[in-house]
Amino acid sequence: MKACEIYHISHKKSFRWKWRYIPTEGRAVESKDSYALYFECVTAAREAGYEPRPQARAPAAV
To answer: Residue ranges of the domains in the chain?
Structure first.
């Protein structure tokens, strides 16, 4: 499976989730739909043949 990333987008006064695959060469492939739940987005990405990779998180402020 190709690795993809999960990201959020603004939606009304909240947000929704989408996935995208960015190849080293060529056009990015992005989900047409957005999802209310992170899990729904992960499931949709896997059904499309992509494996979501963990996102790096910013370190907590000290």
So the answer is: 2-52
